[in-house]
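Progress against Task 2.4 (sequence-to-structure conversion) is shown through the following example record, which the project officer requested during the mid-term review.
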Amino acid sequence: RGSALEDIINFTNESYRKKGLALFQKIPTPITPVEVDNKRRTITLAYFDQNSTVDYMGVVQGIPVCFDAKECKETVFPLANIHEHQVRFMREFEQQEGISFLLIYFSGRNEFYYLTFRDLWWFWERAQNGGRKSFLYEELNPSYFLTNHGGILVPYLDGIQKDLQDRD
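Structure tokens generated for the chain above:
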């Protein structure tokens, strides 16, 4: 699950790199192998060394950016899909004048959404204060849905540009 999404994002990242627009790297989750199949040269059992932060980190025209990619089949996104340490990292990243966001793929609708950190924080705080533990598709700002163009499958730079404009 999620590997097709990762492939699409990696393709987009490579397109942005080739055009000189942005440079992103997938951040691997550190693991410790427990069992290895030497014949196949594969890890058959492992555990996570530590909590991962976000899926991708990079820079866009001198601006540090990090984001996490999530897939959602339905129109209700459970906040349980995001871990507290991820939200904390993204918040600290924003406090250092970087840009953090969630890239959500609504697979049932074949739509990509750029969720600003400020909106994520609002949903997160609502849940922490006893409100709903998810957010609805209908609650999202329609202007942050991403439309592919120019050979870019997931044009999240459009979301970053709008995010920056909305901060001013």
